[in-house]
Design goal:
The chain is 27% helix and 19% strand. By secondary structure, it is an alpha+beta fold. A 5-stranded mixed beta sheet has the order 1-6-7-4-5. Strands 2-3 form a two-stranded antiparallel ribbon. It is elongated and about 70 Å long.
Length: 179
């Protein structure tokens, strides 16, 4: 099914380019004196991010759910907690007068039973517990979110609910020059 959509998209792009060239040729009274070069058309998609998410799930030793930055960008989430609520088994805790998402509960275990890592490193909290206030981390600045629902001894042995790994984008994640 996705390949038929790609074929349809390619065909429609070619028809659009061909018809615009014919319209330009009809509009000008004289024949062009120099040959015009074709511009390169680049079509981007999210297939690579979906494949990367599947690869991370396949390579994991336990149950892992992953959200990439492309998936996070589809929704107007204010912070990481709002993005994490889209993972099965994860619910959010709200606080404040506006009901801002601040923490998460994984499979019924609150924030004190979950461990949060930033790029694979344990972080400390201001309150001294293990419950992390996710309202301080904007969803726009995250490269991927991984929620490991089964214990992994290489990362953490003391999380009962889940281990949440917030991965930030790295300079060489995307090929080419980016500004």
């Amino acid at each position: 099914m996705p390949e038929s959509k790609n074929g349809l998209l390619s065909a429609s792009i070619l028809v659009a380019l061909a018809s615009s060239g014919a319209a330009i040729a009809q509009g000008s009274g004289a024949a062009p004196t120099e040959t015009s070069s074709l511009e390169e058309v680049v079509v981007t998609g999210i297939r690579e991010s979906l494949q990367r998410n599947l690869d991370m799930k396949r390579e994991a030793t336990g149950v892992v759910d992953v959200i990439s930055s492309e998936d996070i960008g589809k929704f107007p989430d204010s912070n990481v907690a709002a993005s994490l609520q889209r993972i099965p088994g994860v619910s959010i805790q709200r606080a404040g007068t506006r009901g801002e998402p601040t923490g998460i509960t994984v499979r019924g275990f609150g924030g004190d039973f979950n461990e949060t890592l930033f790029d694979g490193r344990r972080i400390s909290t201001a309150a001294g517990g293990r419950s992390v206030d996710f309202s301080t981390v904007g969803a726009d600045f995250v490269g991927a979110l991984a929620v490991m629902k089964t214990p992994d001894i290489t990362l953490s042995a003391n999380s009962i609910g889940a281990t949440v790994n917030v991965m930030f984008p790295k300079p060489f994640d995307q090929p080419g020059l980016r500004l």
